[in-house]
Amino acid sequence: MLSNEILEKFFNYFEKMGHKKIPSSSLLAPNSSTLFTTAGMQQLNDYLSGEKDVIKDFGTRHLVSCQKCFRTNDIDEVGDERHHTFFEMLGNWSVGVDDKGNYFKEGAIELAIHFLLDELKLEKEKIWVTIFKGEQGIPRDEESYNLWQKFGIPKERIRECSLKDNFWGPVYQTGPCGPCSEIYYDRGEKYGCKNPNCGPNCPNCNRYLEIWNLVFMEYNKKEDGSFEKLSQTNVDTGIGFERLVSVVQEKETAYETEIFYPLIKDIENNCSLKYESNKKEFRIIADHLRAIVFLVSEGILPSNIGHGYILRMLLRRIIRIEKKLELKDNWQRTGINFFINFYQERYPELKRKGEEINLVFAKEKEKFEKALERGLKEFKSEFLKFKDKKIIPGKFAFNLYQSYGFPLEMIKDLAKEEGFSVNEEEFQKEFQKHKEISRTGAERKFGGLGIDKIKDEEEKIKVIKYHTATHLLQAALRKILGEKVQQMGSDINSERLRFDFSFDRKLTEEEREKIENLVNEKIKENLKVKKEIMSLKEALESGALAFFKEKYPETVSVYTIYNEKTGEVFSKEICAGPHVEWTKELGFFKIQKEESLGRDLRRIKAILIEK
Fold first, then answer.
1. For the chain, how far is it from start to end, CA to CA, in angstroms?
2. Mean pLDDT of all residues in the chain?
3. Closest to 267 in 3D by CA, of 354, 337, 341, 325
4. Domain of 537: which CATH number?
C-alpha cells in the first residue's frame, strides 16, 4: 500500500465517522514561544482550551487533518531509524462536550483500533499499548487500561509508563494537556535486544515502534507548574505519517519507502558510495533537503537568526556532507524537484516556489563553499590540541561559527566524527558576549536610542515621519518585487531613512521608479494610520507583518495604513511606533541611493521633501 493510499484511507475513514477535514496550518508557529508548528494540535490550541467556539468556526466537534510539522530538538538524531526534522502528523480530534455524540477515551480507542485492523490490515497480535501509571497527584489511567482489554488487547501487552512518557503537553509553557495512551507495533525479533522484558519504550532497541498517540486532554497546566481540571475534555491524537508508512510497507525505516528512497538511489547515482555503507549521511541529506523545500516554500530565507538560522544550518550541513561524499554538481536540483512533485498535490504552493528553492540552495552553496574549505582546514589543524580531554573548547567552536559560518550543529558533527564533544556551555557564553557587543554598537546609532531620548520637538516630528515612510517603503517593495522581500534592518534619523532588505540583485531603474511612485501615490491618497493593541497571536492571525516575531512580547501594537473610504489596507505591521496620523503629512518621498550590502542583501537610503 503506497503512502498516498494510506493517507486517502485515513481521511475517508474519519470523514465516514463524522469528522470534518481541515487543512494544514503554516509551519511557522502561531505563538512566539516556539519557532515552528511541532504538532497538529497547535492550530487548535484555543479550541482545546475552550477560548474559542469550535462549533461556530467548524460546525462540528470532530476534526481530522494532515499537519506539516517541524521539530528542531531532534536534529542531532536525524540519520537514525526514527527521527526527522520536517514530518507530517495525521490527527483526529473530539473537542469539548455536548449531547450530540462527541467522544472521549472509549471513542478514541475504538476508532484507532478499527482503523489499524480493518482499514490498514495490521496484525492485532503485534499491537502493544502504554497507559499513564499516575504521578504528581494525577491518578492512574484505569479507564484506558480497561478499555484496551475490552477492544482485544490483553493486559500482557499493556505497559504502564511515567509522566515523562505518557503525559502529553502542553505545547507552550501553559495550556491544555493530559495523560496519553500510545500504540506500538511489534516489528519482530530481528529488531530486538533479546531482553525478556523488552517492550514499548525499550532504551536498547527499536523493535516496538510507536505509531499512534492518543492524548486525553483533561488538565490545564498553570504558570506555577501545577495542574487543574480543564473546563472541557478533548481528544487529540497524532500519527507520525512517515513511521506509519514504514510499518504498513514492512520497511526498516521511512527512508526505504517511496517518500525518500527514489532520492537515496539518485544520490547513489551521483557519487561512488552506497547507501548501505553510508546510511547516516544519505538519510541526513534526504531529510534535510525535504525540510529545506518546505521551509523556503513558507518564505523563509537563510539568515543568522530564528527560522532563517535553522534553514541555513540545514543547508550548510548538507553542503558539508555533499563535499564528503563527493557528490556531482547540481545533484540537488533533481532532489528538490522530486520532493516538489511528490507533495504538490496536497501542497500546491511548492510548485510555484520550485525555482526559488533551487536558487536559495545554489546561492547558499556558492556563499559557503570557500569558507567551508578554510574552516575545515583550521579545524583539522587545531583539534588535535584538545586530544587529551577530547573536548572542543567553546571559544574555538565559536571562532569557527563567527569566522567561517559553521553552525554549532555542524561543529558537533565534526567533533563527533573524531570522537570528540563540544563544550556547548562555553560556546553559548561566547555567543552571548558577542550579542552584547553587537547590541552596544547598535545602540550608538540613533535608531537604538528611541524616540523618547529626542529633546527637540521639531526633530522628533521629522523622525516620526520617516518612521511612517519606512512602513510605506516596505509595503511598496513587497508589492513591486514580491513577498519574498523581508526587512533585515533599518535606521532612521531626522534627515533620512535607511532600510535594509533581502533581495538577490540590483533594482532596475524601472523598479526603483515604480517603488518611489507607489510610496508617493499612497502619501497623496492621505491614508489613515491606525494603532491597535492586541495579543501577538491575534496580530499574526490578522496578517500583520512580523519577520522577527520571536523577539516580540505577548501584547503588541499593530499599525495599519489604510484608505478610510474603501477600507483597503496598504501596510500592516507589528511596531512599537510612534507614527503620523495621516500619510499626507510626509511630503514627497525620494530614493537617494540603492546599494548592495553583500550577497542577497540590499539597502535603500531615502529622504522626505517638504512641499
1. 71
2. 89
3. 325
4. 3.30.980.10
**Amino acid occupying residue 594:** E
User: Quick one: 492 and 422 in the same domain?
Assistant: no
CA distance 358 to 344: 16
Q: H helices of 344-482, where?
A: 349-352, 354-382, 394-404, 408-417, 424-443, 457-481
For 256-295, the pLDDT digits (tens) are 999 999 999 999 999 999 999 999 999 999 999 999 999 9
pLDDT digits (tens, 9 = 90+) for 400-424: 988 888 988 889 999 999 999 999 9
Cis peptide bond prior to 170, omega within 30° of 0: yes
Q: Residue 120 CA to chain centroid, in angstroms?
A: 30
Q: Which residue has the higher pLDDT, 81 or 517?
A: 517
Q: Which pLDDT score, from 0 to 100, does residue 436 have?
A: 64
Q: Encode pLDDT of 36-77 as tens digits.
A: 998 888 888 888 878 889 999 999 999 999 999 999 888 888
pLDDT average, residue stretch 482-499: 87
Final residue of a domain: which of 203, 232, 251? 251
In a domain, 24, yes or no: yes
Q: Which residues contact 120 (CB under 8 A, 6 or more apart)?
A: 1, 6, 9, 248
298 part of a folded domain: yes
Last residue in a domain, options 251, 280, 310: 251
Q: In what order do the strands lie in the sheet with 497-502?
A: 487-492, 497-502, 601-609, 588-598
Question: pLDDT per residue over 224-251, tens digit each?
Answer: 888 888 888 899 999 999 999 999 999 9
Same domain, residue pair 57 and 147? yes
pLDDT value of residue 451:
65
Q: Are residues 287 and 349 in the same domain?
A: yes
Same domain, 205 and 267: no
Residue in the block written with cell 466537534: 61
Q: Is residue 491 part of a domain?
A: yes
Strands (E), 206-257: 208-221, 227-240
- What CATH number does the domain containing 180 carry? 3.30.930.10
| pTM of the shown model | 0.72
DSSP 8-state assignment for residue 73 = T
What's at 607, amino acid-wise? I
Domain that residue 471 falls in: 456-609
Domain total of the chain:
3
For the stretch 187-228, pLDDT in tens is 999 999 989 889 998 988 989 999 999 999 988 888 888 888
- Do residues 365 and 514 share a domain? no
> What does the buried/exposed string (b/e) look like for 263-296 if buried means 16 or more CB atoms within 10 Å of the residue's CB?
bbeebbebbebebeebbebbbbbbbbbbbbbbbb
Whether residue 379 sits in one domain with residue 356: yes
Q: How many CA atoms lie within 13 A of 406 on its CB side?
A: 29
Instruction: Look at residue 443 and tell me if it is in a domain.
Output: no
3-class DSSP assignment, residue 241:
helix
Q: Identify whether residues 196 and 306 lie together within a single domain.
A: no
Cell numbers 574555538: residue: 396
Residues 187 and 130 in one domain: yes
- In our burial notation (b when 16+ CB lie closer than 10 A, e otherwise), range 125-135 reads eebbbbbbbbe
Q: Which amino acid is at 160?
A: E
Distance CA 532, CA 58 (A): 28
